Amino acid sequence: MYDAVIIGAGVIGCALAQRLSEYAGRFAVVERAPDVSEGASKANSGIVHAGYDAAAGSEKARLNVKGAGMMPGLCARLGVPYGNPGAMVLGFDESDRETLEGLSRNAVLNGVSGCRVIGREEILALEPHVNPAVVAALLVPSSGLVSPYELTCALADTACENGVEFLLDTEALGLSHDAGVWTVRTSRGPLSARAVVNCAGALAGVLHNQISTRPVNIVARRGQYYLLDHSVPLKFRRTLFQVPTRMGKGVLVSPTTHGNILLGPTAEDIPDALDTATTRGGLDDALKKARLTDPEADLRQVITTFSGIRAHEAGGDFIIGRVEGAPEGAFEAIGIESPGLSAAPAIGQELGDWVAWYLKLGRNLSYTAPRPLPKPFSGMSDAERREAYENDPEYGRIVCRCEQVTEAEVRRAIRRPVGARSLDGVKRRTRAGMGRCQGGFCSTRVMELLSEELGVGLEEVTKAGGQSRVLSAPLREAARDE
Ligand SMILES: Cc1cc2nc3c(=O)[nH]c(=O)nc-3n(C[C@H](O)[C@H](O)[C@H](O)COP(=O)(O)OP(=O)(O)OC[C@H]3O[C@@H](n4cnc5c(N)ncnc54)[C@H](O)[C@@H]3O)c2cc1C
Asked: How many domains does the chain have?
């Protein structure tokens, strides 16, 4: 019997798991995918939004501002990349001035300080490569950047080190409640718990509507991106938004924490919440809009395209807390579209405390605070590299040339508490395969390391779990025979 079962290992489920692990209890996270951070939490803009745009008085506004305030300290404790370059919301039409002034007033209402509307001259002095047709902008000094999947993986590790069980490749199929006990029917058998927490992202509506008399309508809203190589000097220091639309924050041009440039995302409502395809039309749309900000955006620098699915609830706000219209002991964090990543530290903390209060849990006296992840080899000085090599000669073997990832780091990623089990798992924890060649050179070596560390044959190594084996059938036969 668990005290609480969390459904979904995105940034919200993992932030919640980390907070709950500070309490004495037995907790599990069930995740349908083979790894944590496989949903929206791996495919978003990675912006720590300041909180100027969410409707004043909404949960989105409150938790965005609170979470963004917690983010720098949390990332420092976890050793996760975070930056604070600031942002601008660009207006290209005289009529946009009014919208920008409105956003500035909303920022004050939401408790976001330092925002102000600036004119063309100041914009071009701060960001000389912006389209000179710009008219005005909202300058947002407190906007930040975070690596979303590195944050999620680090939160999961901390929770796991403090006793939370991660049941991956395990889908919650249904929920039922009897005599104060919840049963989570999963693809690997039933789990019993005193409380359940639905953090299932774009699929959360299915579980909510099974147990509540008050149905929700979660729309899958896809966003497609281009990702540009970091080998070219960054043209923009800040995140550059355009004035928001009815569908969200609009298309941005932004640096990432690792010095790439992102162009996107689109906003398309789609029927299938798992359809993360990119489309010609979607990418063309993203590029067209991005070129309003950066007319010179150069597709020769594109190294990959991807898409993520927002969980847009028809009411437009986050829904967090007890599940209304359901039996006792059911909690949820649903409709967590943008700025959900920014709000995650606050959502995890508040919801965790709420669940612990309901369960009457005491503090976990053996809780171990996270140790920051070691500095990546790519970010070390020569002296630090030498010292790392002297302590561990596997730092002397580069596996991924594009991102300068060493064998020591790949092995450590696999050995982490919620460790990598696939090429994509290694990629998200180390960046091996994230660079210009997209794994063309390093995948075979990473496969060998996965095979050695996990004690499985090369033929069993997958790109992303499940049936995604990397070797084709004849090669698998050959590898098995060796
Ligand atoms: C295109 C895009 C851009 C965004 N940009 C930003 C941004 O810049 N800044 C920001 O703050 N926010 C941004 N967001 C929002 C942010 O990414 C999300 O709010 C956040 O990732 C939501 O986390 P989550 O844990 O709720 O969902 P997810 O990360 O989707 O996690 C839900 C998990 O539940 C699992 N699951 C689903 N059903 C089941 C089941 N039945 N059983 C077991 N597991 C299940 C899924 O596999 C998934 O892993 C963006 C989102 C998108 C899509």
From this structure: 3
Residue 191 identity (one-letter amino acid): L
Distances (CA, A) of 363 to 283, 349, 353, 356, 369: 49, 14, 11, 9, 13
Confidence grade of residue 231 (pLDDT, cut at 50, 70, 90): confident
Query: Looking at the structure, do residues 26 and 166 belong to the same domain, yes or no?
Result: yes
- Regarding whether 268 and 408 lie in a shared domain, the answer is no
User: What range does the domain containing 231 cover?
Assistant: 82-144+219-309
Are residues 243 and 91 in contact, defined by beta-carbon separation less than 8 angstroms?
Answer: yes
- pLDDT digit string, tens, across residues 393-402: 999 999 999 9
312 has catalytic annotation: no
CA gap 474, 482 in Å, rounded: 13
Q: How far is the CA of 10 from the centre of ligand 1 (A)?
A: 6
Instruction: Please indicate, yes or no, whether residues 335 and 255 belong to a single structural domain of this protein.
Output: no
Q: Which SS3 state, helix, strand or coil, does residue 305 take? A: strand
CA distances from 200 to 33, 193, 314, 338 (A): 11, 17, 16, 15
Same domain, 243 and 280: yes
67 in a structural domain: no
Assess whether 429 and 282 both reside in one domain: no
Q: What is the mean pLDDT of residues 313-335?
A: 97
Q: State pLDDT tens for residues 164-180.
A: 999 999 999 999 999 99
Q: Which of 49, 208, 230, 258 is catalytic?
A: 49
Residue 37 clears pLDDT 90, i.e. is over it: yes
Reported as a single tens digit per residue, the pLDDT across 344-371 is 999 999 999 999 999 999 999 999 999 9
Residue 47 has pLDDT above 70, yes or no: yes
Is the pTM higher than 0.85? The answer reads yes
- Could you tell me the CATH number of the domain that includes residue 120? 3.30.9.10
Residue 366 forms part of a structural domain: no
Specify the residue with its C-alpha closest to ligand 1, atom 37: 200
Residues lining ligand 1, CB < 6 A?
Answer: 7-13, 30-33, 38-41, 44-47, 49, 171-172, 199-203, 223, 265, 308-310, 336-342
Q: What is the pLDDT of residue 250?
A: 85
Which residue do the tokens 């037995």 mark? Answer: 26
Distance 11 CA to ligand 1 centre (A): 7
**276 part of a folded domain:** yes
Ligand 1 midpoint to CA 46 (Å): 12
Q: Does 440 reside within a domain?
A: yes
